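Continuing the series of single-chain predictions for the mutant panel. This is the parent chain; the variants come on the following pages.
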Amino acid sequence: MVEKKAWKFNAYLGLVILVAMFIASIFLLIQEFIVSGLLLLAIDIIFLMSSFTVVQPNQAKIITFFGTYMGTIREAGVWITVPFSNRRRISLRVRNFNSAKLKVNDVEGNPIEIAAVIVFKVVDTAKAMFDVDHYEQFVEIQSETALRHVASKYPYDNFISDGYSLRGNAEEVAGELGAELQERLSVAGVEVLEARLTHLAYSTEIASAMLQRQQASAIISARQQIVEGAVGMVQMAIARLEADGAVTLDEERKAAMINNLMVAIVSDRSASPVINTGSLY
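Parent structure:
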């Protein structure tokens, strides 16, 4: 079902017409036109009691007439609409939903805790009211379902390959979560404005072990970068010395220099220089 505009009439102008009808009915009663006066007075009271409706800012009124959807009034103000109709209020304000902390398995099978906040608003009142049962609960359930699905597609962390991870690519994961949520919630006439992860951690039963794994992976990754940088620095130093002609190095001296430079650069502690006053041989 698609939203459409309901028939409405400015209530202030309508009130003037109703007052005029009321005065006319009183005049008919005074002139002893009892039936006509009472009929006009009844119509006046019926319209006055059953057709006036008030719409607050950022709200809408869904009009149904004996089970038939007549349309939606979005404009704030006082209106006259279909008499004897049922008018249900629905909010158009921006709202957010904070999911509970969910325990799911990432793509590597590690149990993790994850939560997200979803910012949304209703853009199609007819779908929100008639196509789903309690659209607020529908948003909550679909948000948790989409969060579980997205969390199970990526590892918690990734130090080895260049793929996405939940911790290292929060923006990309949030974008995918928002896109999947929009696809799921379109049937309810809801627009997803933003989706963000608010909590991400390993589950308590493996948190200690995974912390050690994270630390080990971080150390290995850092060591790889240090070694790569050290090799480049040593190559640059030897090439510069040979290019300037400051010293002539044979293979044995090159090996000794490479060993000393690598130890000085890669070592965890500050290197202690040893001054050699004699010959290498």
